[in-house]
């Protein structure tokens, strides 16, 4: 066995660990090798929902395919539940794939099989008898809310229902880990929300670890407690979703998130304001408030402290990974007195602020 020796308690052992993982494609004949993953170190905690975000071609699919052995690392180690994937023989890979379920953007259901028979497929492959299969599949169809669609064919189901069947099929072998490859990208926003709710329920009630890759920031914001950002095959940022979404450091993260968390200025506030105030200018400032402060009546206090000439230009209160987060774009006179009052107020309240510029 390739079991990794660890003295940690089982709960503390991560579900997946990538250790200095590199993946190259090609490199035969005159073709130069293409490095899709470059020295990836990443820990996927047990029991959590973790997300990996990145632009198209960043390496997300390659990364996730290493987890169930669909791809093999060129160098480095991928360890799933204490077992190193790279050295597994075919029988070990089969065992691994029973423990790692996967759902896909286009559902990958067999059109000639009913909903029931699609869910039953991995159990048939595992050699389970018909009665045991019935006992396993029926409650799964109930779990995903499709107990009454058992005899329907994929063509008779909506996109959301197809994905529910995909989820039931992924759960059939009672996996410890669920991989989600853009599972909501083909669905409308409302259906996306219902599928995300289902994934959240499964994570909570079955204790299943979920690792999802997506280019939809909204998905990560809604359900993932952890997120890693991948750019050109490298992990450029990694941590709690709330921390990364509220204070993205890497340029790629900032760019991916700019639309998702209301950090972008409304079109009408442009052109970009000046960086130094001229007499008579106003300061354009973004206020970011987290946790407790998100619920305090800050706008009233802002006006009371800074003066009545405060304009609120844009604002949103949102939730990131279950935590409240708000942002307000305000403007007020950029004279030294007002700026000093504002600065004192921000210090007292602990508000995070960003001066966007100055303008008339
Ligand atoms: N089998 C392969 N042979 C050669 N190059 C590959 C292969 N698989 C992936 N690549 C390349 O590796 C890079 C990363 O691909 P990958 O599919 O992992 O990206 P991604 O982030 O999932 O992108 P997308 O969101 O568009 O699916 C891409 O440039 C891709 O062309």
Automatic annotation (TrEMBL):
Ranges for domain ABC transporter: 16-257
Keyword ATP-binding: yes
Alphabetical list of InterPro entries matching this protein: AAA+_ATPase (IPR003593), ABC_transporter-like_ATP-bd (IPR003439), ABC_transporter-like_CS (IPR017871), ACT-like_dom_sf (IPR045865), MetN_ABC (IPR041701), MetN_ABC_transporter-like (IPR050086), NIL_domain (IPR018449), P-loop_NTPase (IPR027417)
Entry keyword set: Amino-acid transport, ATP-binding, Cell membrane, Membrane, Nucleotide-binding, Translocase, Transport
Domain of life: Bacteria
Listed SUPFAM superfamilies: ACT-like (SSF55021), P-loop containing nucleoside triphosphate hydrolases (SSF52540)
Pfam families tied to this protein: ABC_tran, NIL
Record keyword Cytoplasm present: no
A molecular-function term among this protein's GO annotations: ATP binding
Family named by the database record: Belongs to the ABC transporter superfamily.
Protein name in the entry: Methionine ABC transporter ATP-binding protein
Source species: Pseudorhizobium endolithicum
High-level lineage: Bacteria, Pseudomonadati, Pseudomonadota, Alphaproteobacteria, Hyphomicrobiales
């Amino acid at each position: 066995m390739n079991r990794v020796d660890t003295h940690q308690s089982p709960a503390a052992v991560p579900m997946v660990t990538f250790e200095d993982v590199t993946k190259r494609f090609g490199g035969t004949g005159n073709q130069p090798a293409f490095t899709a993953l470059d020295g990836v170190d990443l820990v996927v905690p047990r029991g959590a929902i973790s997300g990996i975000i990145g632009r198209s071609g960043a390496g997300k699919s390659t990364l996730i395919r290493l987890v169930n052995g669909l791809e093999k690392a060129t160098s480095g180690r991928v360890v799933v539940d204490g077992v190193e994937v790279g050295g597994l023989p075919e029988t070990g890979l089969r065992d691994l794939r029973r423990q790692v379920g996967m759902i896909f953007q286009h559902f990958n259901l067999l059109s000639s099989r009913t909903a029931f028979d699609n869910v039953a497929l991995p159990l048939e492959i595992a050699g389970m008898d018909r009665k045991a299969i019935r006992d396993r599949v029926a409650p799964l169809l109930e779990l995903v809310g499709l107990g009454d669609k058992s005899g329907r064919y994929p063509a008779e189901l909506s996109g959301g229902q197809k994905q529910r069947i995909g989820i039931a099929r992924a759960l059939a072998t009672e996996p410890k880990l669920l991989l989600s490859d853009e599972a909501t990208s083909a669905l409308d926003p409302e259906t996306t929300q219902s599928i995300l709710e289902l994934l959240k329920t499964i994570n909570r009630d079955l204790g299943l670890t979920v690792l999802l890759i997506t280019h939809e920031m909204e998905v990560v914001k809604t359900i993932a407690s952890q997120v890693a950002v991948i750019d050109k095959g490298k992990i450029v940022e990694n941590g709690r979703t709330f921390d990364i979404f509220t204070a993205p450091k890497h340029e790629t993260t900032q760019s991916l998130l700019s639309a998702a968390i209301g950090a972008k200025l409304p079109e009408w506030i442009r052109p970009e304001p000046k960086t130094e105030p001229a007499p008579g200018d106003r300061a354009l400032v973004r206020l970011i408030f987290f946790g407790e402060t998100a619920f305090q009546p800050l706008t009233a206090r802002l006006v009371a402290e800074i003066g009545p000439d405060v304009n609120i230009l844009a604002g949103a209160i949102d939730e990131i990974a279950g935590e409240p987060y708000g942002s307000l774009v305000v403007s007020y006179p950029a004279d030294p007195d007002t700026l000093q009052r504002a600065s004192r107020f921000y210090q007292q309240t602990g508000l995070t602020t960003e001066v966007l510029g100055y303008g008339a």
